Amino acid sequence: MREDILIVDGYNVIFAWPELKKISKSSLEHARSRIKHMLQNYGKHKGYRVILVFDGKYAHPGSAEEFITDDFLEVYTADGETADSYIERTVFTFKNTYANVYVCTSDYAEQSQVLGFGALRISARELKAQVERAKIDEQRYCKGLHNRDSLQLQRNELGHQIDGEVAKQWETLRRGKK
């Protein structure tokens, strides 16, 4: 089955999530970095390919695309191109490539446009809730692997992988008995 892709309007999310909006008031770069790390983690947890799109006029002169990982692309649009137009073009390009194309934006006009192209929309508020749920799931999973903050490891010894008469002979050899 083809994987899913999540395309996120970065500034739309930054200014919709209270904690990121607060960070952006003192450092927009820090807010961009924070959303990038949160979405990388979320995308990896859900098995999504993620494209995080920012209007380049606020950050970089000219367009830039940077593959952070194979499954995560950070994009700054060129001067004169909005994040919305980049997202629309990307949705149209990928609509038959992925099982589901999700677009996160709270811009109603953009939601209508991408729905027309066959994408599924997620509001910034819905994405925030999904990211928080994924974080809880991840913590539960990790807690199951840990016991009082100490990782439970199993020794990978030959003696644990054999049984019967062979195991008895191995134990005799190991202890140095004849």
Q: Can you tag this structure with a few keywords?
A:
single chain, two-stranded antiparallel ribbon, 49% helix, elongated, 7 helices, six-stranded mixed beta sheet, 20% strand, alpha/beta, 178 residues
Question: Can you tell me about this structure?
Answer:
- This protein has 178 residues and is an alpha/beta fold.
- 49% of the residues lie in helices and 20% in strands.
- The protein has seven helices and eight strands; from the N terminus they run E-H-H-H-E-E-E-H-E-H-E-H-E-E-H.
- The protein has a six-stranded mixed sheet, sandwiched between helices. It has a two-stranded antiparallel ribbon with strand order 7-8.
- Strand 5, helix 5 and strand 6 form a beta-alpha-beta unit.
- Helix 2 packs antiparallel against helix 3 and helix 3 packs across helix 6.
- The longest helix has 22 residues.
- The protein is elongated, with a radius of gyration of 24 Å.
- The mean pLDDT is 82.
